[in-house]
Amino acid sequence: MFKIVVDRECGCFRRSDLENNQVIESKDAALEKSLEMIEIMNENFCDKHSFTLHEDGDTFLIKMG
What we know:
The chain is an alpha+beta fold. 35% of the residues lie in helices and 31% in strands. It contains two helices and four strands; from the N terminus they run βαβαββ.
């Protein structure tokens, strides 16, 4: 099992339909979902922050920059 965790939830994230702390069975699916989320966050949020992906064991951590 692999987790997708958003490190800090900004207001745009809280207002979006995206979910934090998702658990996904395969690593490939978790990576794909993480990259999808980052693309949505970087393209559709207010541009005050940028988001990057960090892999930490079985966790994909989306960090705000």
